[in-house]
Design brief:
The chain is an alpha/beta fold and 506 residues long. It folds into 2 domains: 298 residues, Glycosidases (TIM Barrel); 113 residues, Sandwich (Immunoglobulin-like), CATH 2.60.40.1180. Helices cover 27% and strands 19% of the residues. Strands 1-2-3-4-5-6-7-8 form an 8-stranded parallel beta barrel. Strands 9-12-13-18-15 form a 5-stranded antiparallel β-sheet, covered by helices on one side.
């Protein structure tokens, strides 16, 4: 039955967006060629981007964006299986697909989103165009399970992309779909029980949504995965692509992945549009692609070392736990996110922050507040962030108090950061020293810049505080650069000194 359905399904696939074998252009579908791609300057300068986890899972709004998997698993520790039965009905009567009509996005205003994102100071933005559940947020002609044909019946990603570009923001498309094959399935014994009970996961009519070995072949899934990705590339020309974890390199998968990446680069080259791909360090402790490829990306900084030798970005949820909207979502404090942004930029990285919109398309007020706080901070201190590069010394202060263990993984948190923690960036002939706290006595001491520490051929010519017109008194001693800060703080969270060097800054 599976093979018969697979052949029928493949034959019925639309022809649009079907072919790409790398496309004509400078890049071949192999790693030797793809790793030669240069990172665009705009992305190296941007430092801060925003996307969102939004989809069918936002309807249930229960514990996690993994609700589609959790609701079929009676062993789920968060109780999603029983929650679903109580709220919507037994799984063999009301499956995950039946939530789609309730995902209407009826209050989604792309211009409101785009304006809020612009105010936040982000330089690029987008949404997760498809998560593990396989439901696409664009209007697709490649497959039926998408927002253009079901649920909202609207091109959610396309409308947002248009509004963002009207504000001169670049766009990102994040793709989480590679993990979908067999993702929904519980343990083997439960699969047998559910199949006998008529649960929709095992119904061939929905094989092109639930994608599992009971009703389809992985080869067919990969062919459609490629078509979907190609369609997003062709239709929206995203400036950045990001992929969640999954299998990108095994036999049967590697060739379609390589040809898709080459196609993306070649199409962008033909349009003279500088683009890039983010290369995630997954929970498997391996990157999706060879480490030489793309801009390295770490989920919430998980297992990221103190120093990374090439450009990198952390993606971070605005929520303390989880990524999609839930009824009990706890939001990170603005200070935590802003100090984390400063730390990342000082270390040569950037931040991609994920929002958690409600199923109706509204961004909750507590998330709006965080974005506006970030934007207000960047209005004052953006000169120390945008367009900067790491200095020869990146940090001052102990990293030990910022690092903790989470589920056997190294993670970063900035609650304990204070005025002893300094992050350095540079731009042209100026060095920026950003303190992660305000000293209690009003005197900032930067040990790295003590007398004898060589900045340039002529030392320091001037020190000023971003956002303040008050003159700053300073002196260099054998122990530190000592700066007397003005009485009035220029902002709420972290404080940036702009230091001009005599001669060329080294």
């Amino acid at each position: 039955m599976k093979a018969v359905f697979s052949c029928l399904f493949t034959a019925l696939l639309p022809l649009s967006s079907a072919g790409n074998d790398g496309a004509p252009g400078p890049y071949r579908p192999d790693w030797q060629s793809l790793t030669k791609h240069e990172h665009p300057q705009w992305l190296l300068d941007a430092k801060f981007g925003i996307y969102g986890h939004w989809g069918v899972y936002s309807v249930a709004a229960y514990k996690s964006e993994w609700y589609g998997k959790m609701m079929y698993d009676p062993d789920d520790r968060r109780g999603a299986y029983e929650y679903h039965r109580r709220t919507f009905g037994p799984q063999n009567q009301f499956g995950y697909k039946d939530l789609i009509p309730r995902f209407r996005a009826e209050k989604f205003d792309p211009n409101e989103w785009a304006e809020l994102i612009r105010q936040s100071g982000a330089r690029y933005a987008g949404i997760a165009v498809v998560h593990h559940d396989g439901f696409g947020l664009w209007d697709s002609d490649v497959y039926r399970w998408n927002a253009g044909k079901m649920g909202p019946k609207r091109d959610l990603y396309g409308d947002l992309a248009k509004a963002l570009r009207a504000r001169n923001l670049k766009i990102i498309a994040t793709e989480h779909h590679m993990r979908t094959f067999d993702w929904y399935l519980p343990k083997a014994e439960e699969q047998k029980r559910q199949k006998a009970a008529g649960v929709d996961l095992y119904d061939p009519k929905y094989a092109d949504f639930y994608w599992n070995h009971h009703t389809s072949l992985k080869a067919d899934f990969i062919r459609q995965w490629k078509r979907k990705l190609t369609e997003v590339i062709d239709k929206y020309h995203p400036d950045v692509l990001w992929f969640d974890g999954g299998d990108f390199t095994s036999p049967g998968v590697a060739a379609p992945v390589l040809s898709s990446l080459a196609y993306y680069y070649n199409q962008a080259a033909a349009r003279k549009n500088p683009v890039d791909v983010l290369n995630k360090f997954a929970g498997t402790m391996k990157f999706n692609f060879p480490e030489e490829f793309g801009i390295l990306t770490y989920e919430a900084g998980r297992d990221r070392p103190d120093f990374v030798a090439k450009p990198w970005i952390d993606d971070l949820s605005i929520a303390e736990v989880g990524w999609g909207y839930t009824h009990d979502l706890e939001i990170r404090k603005p200070r935590e996110i802003i100090l984390g942004l400063v730390d990342r930029v000082g270390r040569g990285g950037g931040l991609l922050l994920s929002l958690a919109p409600m199923s109706n398309g509204l961004i909750p007020d507590n998330q709006k507040f965080v974005l506006r706080e970030i934007g207000d901070w960047l209005k004052v201190n953006g000169e120390a962030i945008y367009g900067t590069r790491p200095w020869k010394i990146q940090t001052e202060g102990s990293a030990e108090k910022l690092v903790y263990q989470r589920n056997k993984h190294k993670a970063w948190r900035f609650d304990a950061a204070n005025a002893e923690d300094i992050r350095f960036t540079r731009k042209g002939n100026h060095l920026f020293a950003v303190a992660l706290g305000w000293p209690e006595d009003g005197k900032l001491r930067i040990k790295t810049l003590r007398e004898g520490m060589r900045l340039g051929s002529g030392g320091i010519s001037k020190v000023s505080l971003l956002g303040s017109k008050a003159p700053v008194r300073w002196k260099r001693t054998a122990d530190a650069l000592e700066v007397e800060l003005p009485a009035e703080k220029p902002c709420k969270y972290a404080y940036a000194l702009k230091i001009a060097a005599h001669g060329r800054l080294e």
